[in-house]
Amino acid sequence: MLQFAANLSMMYAEHPFLERFARAAEDGFTGVEFLFPYAYAPEQLRKELDRHGLQQALFNAPPGDWSSGERGIACLPGRETEFRRSFHEALRYAEALRCRRIHVMAGICAAGLDRPRALDTLRANLAWALEAAGDAGPDLLLEPINLRDMPGYLLNRQEEAHAIARSLNHPRLKVQMDLYHCQIMEGDILWRLRRHLGEGSRVGHIQIAGVPDRHEPGEGELNYDSIFRVIEEMGYAGWIGCEYRPRGGTSEGLQWLRRYRLGRAQ
Hints:
With 266 residues, this protein is of the alpha/beta class.
C-alpha cells in the first residue's frame, strides 16, 4: 500500500500550525511534510512528531528572501556563501527531525542571468552540498516547478532535473516528481511515471494534487486511481506528499484517500 504524507503547509490550514500534526495523525497519516520549518525550534517540531507517531518525510532548504519573491538561491551566482550557510541550517533541522530528504530549490533565473551559468552554479552548489551532508546525510531533491505558478523558475521539466542528477551521478541526489507541476508543463503522466520509476529510478519523492486548481487529488484532469495503480506496479516504496490546498475542511476532503485505503483493504 502506498504511503502518504500530509503537507502541513497547505493541509489543515484551518488550524494553527503546531496543531496540524495531531489532525494529520487523527486522519491516519503516518508521515508529514511542509515547506519550511525555520519559524519553529527543531525541538518543538520533534516533540510534535514524537507525540503523534509521525515521520518527517521532507522539507525545503531555506529559499532566500521569500517575501521579496526569491524561490531558492542554488542557481544564483554570487550567493554561494549564503547558500552554504543556509544549507547547514537545513542539515541541522534534518538531523533533529530525522528527515531523510531535503528539497533544494534551484531558484528563479532572473532576466539577465545566463541560463547555462545558472545551471553550472546549481550543479556546483549541489556537489558542495552532497559533500557537506556526508555519506550518512539525507537525500537532496531537485523539483521541476511549473512556470504558471512560479514564472522564471530554472527547472520546469522532469528531464531537466534528471539530467542534472545523472551528470553529478551521486546516489543521494534525486528528483522530486510533483505530478501537479508535471501535468501543467508536460502531461502524459502515466508514461512519465513508467519512464522515471523504472530500473535505476532517481525519483526520491512524489507529490500529488488536483489539476488545474491544486485542490484534492480526486478533482480535475488527473485520474488518480490509474496513477496510484501505476505507482504500485512500478514498485515505488517512497513517500507521496499531499501538497494540495483543500477546497474546504481538510478532513472532510479526504474521501479520495479513504477510497484508496478501502480499495486496497479488500
